[in-house]
Specification:
The structure is a homodimer of 268-residue chains.
Chain A: H1 20-34, H2 41-47, H3 62-74, H4 76-79, H5 90-108, H6 113-118, H7 133-145, H8 150-175, H9 234-244, H10 248-266
The structure holds a DNA duplex (30 and 30 nucleotides).
Amino acid sequence: MSSEPSSSAGTGRRPGRLSRDLIAETTLEIIDEQGVGAASMRAIASRLGVEAMSLYKHFSTRDVLLDAVVDRIVQELDQDPEVHRDATDGWRDYLARLARGVRRYALAHPHAFPLVTTRPAEAPWVNPPLRSLAWIESMLSTLSSEGFDDDEVLFAYRSFNSFLLGYLLMESGAHTLRDPQEGDGSFAPSGSNDPVPGGLSPTRTDEEAAEIADAETTAEKIDPQDDIEVADYPTIHRLAAGLAEDHFGEEFDRALDEMLDGIAGRLA
Amino acid sequence: MSSEPSSSAGTGRRPGRLSRDLIAETTLEIIDEQGVGAASMRAIASRLGVEAMSLYKHFSTRDVLLDAVVDRIVQELDQDPEVHRDATDGWRDYLARLARGVRRYALAHPHAFPLVTTRPAEAPWVNPPLRSLAWIESMLSTLSSEGFDDDEVLFAYRSFNSFLLGYLLMESGAHTLRDPQEGDGSFAPSGSNDPVPGGLSPTRTDEEAAEIADAETTAEKIDPQDDIEVADYPTIHRLAAGLAEDHFGEEFDRALDEMLDGIAGRLA
DNA sequence: GTCGGTTGGCTTACGGCGTAAGCCCTACTA
DNA sequence: TAGTAGGGCTTACGCCGTAAGCCAACCGAC
């Protein structure tokens, strides 16, 4: 008696409430808020006020659903007014706009970005972070029509992908840290010959791999840089402040420019 | 009566058989063969001839075990004779050797590499693919002693990380594809407005995110490039052969060189 | 030699997961 | 108005990570 906004009475079972889009959107919400691991079929269904098995009427498998979430993220490029579908202002402008669009969606969904980057592709050249045949086609044909020969197109494609992949994974990774936990804040030595005293180590964080801690409220407690053994890692300690600083914004544009220079330099 | 090499009889329960190292090594074996998702506590234990709960005497949690696996991979750098711990032949040689060492371990463990790249870090600057305080210290202090000022060290550190991350994720991703499945080989349109007919879609592949199909024997069946709608993606179709080609080896060295040029160009 | 403690296995059990199978109400179509 | 298909629900299975506790084998002290 309280919640049905639309037509006839409705026992709460009205068909058609669910749809692929609605499910994928809700899943993305959960991932953004609590990480990939929290997006279980039961959790997604429950947020939709529905039983888990109902989702299977729309997605044959959780993997397929996650693929749809990835698609949904990538498709944010279609809505991005800054991103152009063709090179009206030259290939450089086209690629720069595309790159900034990708960065925008990567930063909008830091918990989901590892999904975009690591989910296995259907073919070896359907690369993250584009991951959509339509956008790949757009990029290849645009460069082609800008006078790139085939080798140059392929070189640009691979440069573009690996640059964005690396930069954005680094940047989004820096924002989604492991849960720092309460008690001892010491790190595992990890690099050298570690005898490992006992069972000191972090806690939960993720499940399979790309799952990332909730973080939400972290970001302050991470700085006790005196936790690190100063004697063992003097340079890290000296540069700690610089390492923690976030120049990603400015540096991205500069690095992007250099990557584009590299492409330009390869043109005949 | 058959398998005990060492001391007294042994009912098969002799303590000390298990160790952190042995467990981590076995886990890495399973991951290399069958992907991260296959490395369940029960599966690992069973390969060791032991019950799952016994592993918890050595690792408090599966996550901690996976961290140890990542450490183990990164520590392959320590054994790599091509990688030097200091810049006896200059910083360029040092970084190039380090980069090639990282590439070596990335390609040696393509199923595990996404784990290295996406596992949340303890601090925002403990970046993949180095992920070890000892190696980070080594790199920072080496560059420092080579005359880099602090800003230059940090710039080099970030360039190095993001370059390797992007390039190697692209390369290892190209080798670990989704299971192509038997029946219809058509892709999901994914990019444009896809109405999506029914439930056609791939099968199993992964679990959380970084899990990747077993692949082992794939790599042949991936080429039916006529599956792609030629009309919709003419440029992809035209470039399909080039896209499928693998120049990663040569291109890595060239791209690495350019990245190092970029660092050199930033020096005062 | 015996004996207590510690170590490193094992057993049991719980709740959550993805999902196969099948039911049944509702809404649309003829 | 009957028939049908779609979209929910229920039940159940086998796997997962792991908490709790048990017990044999070893080890150092007497």
